[in-house]
C-alpha cells in the first residue's frame, strides 16, 4: 500500500538526494527530560515535504514525546525544531502551522461534527460562508456528509476517527501529526482505514508524521520509518530497508522475527566475509564485504523465510551455510508453516516454508533430521 | 505551501487575549498566579487567620467591655507589652466539666460512628451490588435527605421519638408502655446515625462498586464460604472507604451542637455545646477560644487519617 | 453470585429508617390539632399560618439571598482553587493551599463560626470594617466553607477531564484563555451547576456558623426555626419542613429524570 514504486522513483524520495532537497522539518539534537527521566535523547531527524513518516517504537520509546514537541505541547530541554525553515522553539502550539490528530481523537463532546471541524477555522477569523464551504469540503473528503449535525457520541469509532482527521486538516496545516491514528479501531476497520489515510495524504500532499507502535501499520503507511528505542532513533529508512537491512540487533528483533546468531570473523575480504559460528555448527559465508576486523565478535541475523529446509544434505557455498538439526515444533499457519529446528549446540532456528502443495503428504514432520541452508546475501551482519 | 489551495492565506486576526497575556507576562504575572491569587487570599484571610485569632484570644482573659477580652498587646509609654494568660488552658485541665465534656464527646462520636458503619455498610453493599437501573435510584434516595435541611431532619426525629411520638404510639398498639427516648444519650446516637448516614454510605459505595465481581467469584471458586469471602476479600479491600466514611462521621460528630441540644438531655455533655454555652451564655470569649483550640487538637489526627483514606478511595 | 436475603432486608430497613421520620413529619403537617403527635383531622391551616408569619418570611428571604450570594462567590473561588490543585502539579505552598481548601469540609461548625466572629470583631477594631455583623459577614462565612465543597466537586470533574481536548483546541489555534472558555468551561459545566446547588443548599441549611456571625436583625431561617423548635414541637415548622422537603425532592427527582432521559439518547448511533 505504500506508494507505487514507479511513482516514488519519479518524484517523492527526496531523502535519497539530500544535496538538492531541503528538509521540511528539521529536528536537531533534541532532548527532553522529565525530572531525571530522559524521554528523548539527542534526536536528529530530517523530514521532507509530502512524506508520510512513521515514528515506530514501543511504549516509553519517546515517540509520543517527540510528536508532542513538534506540536508545541512540550518544549525541548535542548536542541531545536525547525518547520519550513522557521525555528519553532518559542512558538506556542496555537501559533504553529501544525495540526495534530490525537490518539483519543479529542473531539469536543459538546460540539457537533461541523462545529468540531469549524473550530480551528473560526479561531483564524475566516468569514462564515468560507468556513461553511470548507467544512462541507472536508465532510465530503472523509465521506461524512450526512453526519455534520451529529454529536461525537452519536458516531461509531471509525466515524470519529474520520472527524478527527477532518478537523486536523481543516486549517490546511503544512504538517499533520497523527498519534496512533488507527490505534482505537478494530483490526478489519484498521486495514480499510490505512488505505483511506494514504489516499488522503497523497491527494492533499500534506506532510504526515505518524506515531505508532504497530510495525505492520508503519510498514504499510510509511514512506520512511524512524525506529525509536529508549529515547533515541535506532534506525531511519524505507520500510524495505528496515526489514531487509536492519542496522542493529534491536531493529532486527523489533521488526518482524529474526534468528540471531553469534559468531567470530574468520575471513575478512573486500568481496566476502566468513563467520565462524559454534552456535550454528557451521560457517557463515557472506557474499559482500563488511566493515569489521578479523576475529571480531559479531552477530548475524536472518529472517525465517530466507532459509530453506531439506532432507538431503545440500551442496552449500564455499563449504558454509549448511546447518543441521531436528524438527522440534511445527506451527501450521495455513499459507506457511514455521518450523523450529533444534541444532546440536542447543540453538533453535525458526524457518518458514510456503505450503505450496495442498495437503502435502510428504511434508517434513516432527523429529526428522533436516538441513537448513541459505543464500550468501540472505542474512545481515550486525556489529551492534 | 503544499496545500491543495494555496491562494488563500489564513488572515491573522488580532487576538486581544494574547495581547493581555503578553502584557501581564511582561510585568511578571503569569496565568497561574491569576488563578491562584483569589482563592489563596480568601482562604488565608477567612480561614487561616481566623484560626490564628482564635489561638491569640485563647491566651487573653475575660473582661467587661468591648471587645470582652483583655488585649494581647498593650503599649505603654512607647513600649509594647505582650500579655499572655494561660488560665483558660489551666482551667480546661483542672475543671472536671471540660475534661468530662471532651471524653464524653469522643465516646459519643465513636459509638455513633460504629453504629453508622454497621447500618451503612450493608446498605452501601446492597446498592453496589444492585442491578444497574436500580443503583442510581437508590443512590438518589441516599442523597435526597442530605439535601433536605439538617436541622429539619433532627426536628423530624424529635417528633418521632418523643414520649407521645410515632414510635411510642405504635408500641402502644401492642400494649407496650411508652419508652423514654428523648433527652437521652440514645437519642443523640440515633440523631448522629440518622443525619450522618449518607456521609458513611457514599465513600463506602465508591470503594465497593469498584470491586470486580470476579474477585468474589474467584474466592468462591477457591472454596471460600461467603462469610470468608467477605472477611478476607471484601472487607480488606473496602478499608479506605470504611476509614473515609468513619472519619466523615466522627469528625463533625465530635463538634456537634444541634443534635445534643435538641435531642440530648441536660446531662448529655458534648464539647460543641460547651463551647456554645461558654460563648453565648457566659460570654467568655477567651474560654470559648481555648475550648476551640483544644477541640482542634482532638480532630487533627482523624483529619489526617481522612486525607490519606480519601486519597486511596480516589486512586482505586 | 448467589444473593442472600440479608443485604436486601438490611437495605430496606436502612431506607425506612432514613425516610420514616420525614414521612411522619409531612403527614403531621396536615394535622388539625396543634398537638403535633395526635391526629385529629386533615387541615392545611398550618401552611396558611406560615405565610402570615412575617418573621419567618423575612428570615426565609434573607436566607435565600445569602445562599445565592455565597454559592456564587464560592463557585468562582472553588473553581479557581480546583483548577490550581488539578492543573498546577507543583508550586510553593501547595500543601498549605490544599489543606486550606479541604479543611473547612470537616472543620466543626462551632470552630468555624467562633473563629470568623473573632476575626470580624478584630478586623472591625483594627480596620473599621466590616461594621457590625449581619448579612455581609454571614455571606463571607458561608462562601468560605462552600468554596471547599465547590472545589471538591469541580476537582473530581477536572481530574477526569481528557487534557487532549484542551491541547486539541490550542493546536487548532485557540489561546489558553480562549480554550478555557470554549472547551473547559462547557465540559465542566455540570460540575459547576452541582457545586453551586450544593453551596446554596449548605448555606440555606447552616445554623451554627450563622448564629455566631450574624448580628441583631439578621436572623436566618435556620436560626428562627431553631429558636421555635427549642421551645418544643410547633406545627407550623412541620408545614415549613414539608414545603422545603417537597421542593428539594422535586429538584432531585427532576435532575434524575433528566439524567435518565438523556442517557439512552446518548447511546444511540
TrEMBL record, chain A:
Catalytic activity from the UniProt record: ATP + H2O + polyamine-[polyamine-binding protein]Side 1 = ADP + phosphate + polyamineSide 2 + [polyamine-binding protein]Side 1
EC number: 7.6.2.11
Keyword Cell membrane recorded: yes
Matches recorded under PROSITE patterns: ABC_TRANSPORTER_1 (PS00211), ABC_TRANSPORTER_2 (PS50893)
GO biological process: putrescine transport
GO MF annotation: an example: ATP hydrolysis activity
Keyword annotations: ATP-binding, Cell inner membrane, Cell membrane, Membrane, Nucleotide-binding, Translocase, Transport
Domain spans labelled ABC transporter: 25-255
InterPro entries named among the record's database cross-references: AAA+_ATPase, ABC_SmlMolc_Importer, ABC_transporter-like_ATP-bd, ABC_transporter-like_CS, Mo/tungstate-bd_C_term_dom, P-loop_NTPase, PotA-like, Transp-assoc_OB_typ2
Keyword hit for Zinc-finger: no
Pfam families membership: ABC_tran, TOBE_2
GO cellular component term of the entry, any: ATP-binding cassette (ABC) transporter complex
Role, per record: Part of the ABC transporter complex PotABCD involved in spermidine/putrescine import. Responsible for energy coupling to the transport system.
Family affiliation: Belongs to the ABC transporter superfamily. Spermidine/putrescine importer (TC 3.A.1.11.1) family.
Matches recorded under PANTHER family: PUTRESCINE TRANSPORT ATP-BINDING PROTEIN POTG (PTHR42781:SF5), SPERMIDINE/PUTRESCINE IMPORT ATP-BINDING PROTEIN POTA (PTHR42781)
Subunit structure: The complex is composed of two ATP-binding proteins (PotA), two transmembrane proteins (PotB and PotC) and a solute-binding protein (PotD).
Name of the featured protein: Spermidine/putrescine import ATP-binding protein PotA
Organism (species): Devosia marina
Automatic annotation (TrEMBL), chain B:
Domain ABC transmembrane type-1: 102-306
Organism encoding this protein: Devosia marina
Keyword terms: Cell membrane, Membrane, Transmembrane, Transmembrane helix, Transport
Source lineage: Bacteria, Pseudomonadati, Pseudomonadota, Alphaproteobacteria, Hyphomicrobiales
Compartments, as annotated in UniProt: Cell membrane
Cellular component, GO, one term: plasma membrane
PANTHER family, per database record: INNER MEMBRANE ABC TRANSPORTER PERMEASE PROTEIN YDCU-RELATED-RELATED, PUTRESCINE TRANSPORT SYSTEM PERMEASE PROTEIN POTH
Name of the protein in its database record: ABC transporter permease subunit
Cited InterPro entries: MetI-like, MetI-like_sf
From TrEMBL, chain C:
Protein name per UniProt: ABC transporter permease subunit
Similarity section: Belongs to the binding-protein-dependent transport system permease family. CysTW subfamily.
InterPro entries, sorted: Bact_Polyamine_Transport, MetI-like, MetI-like_sf
Presence of keyword Transmembrane: yes
Topology of the protein relative to the lipid bilayer: Multi-pass membrane protein
Compartment(s): Cell membrane
One GO CC term on file: plasma membrane
Keyword Signal (UniProt): no
Listed PROSITE patterns: ABC_TM1 (PS50928)
Transmembrane segments: 7-30, 59-85, 97-123, 135-158, 179-198, 239-258
Pfam families per UniProt: BPD_transp_1
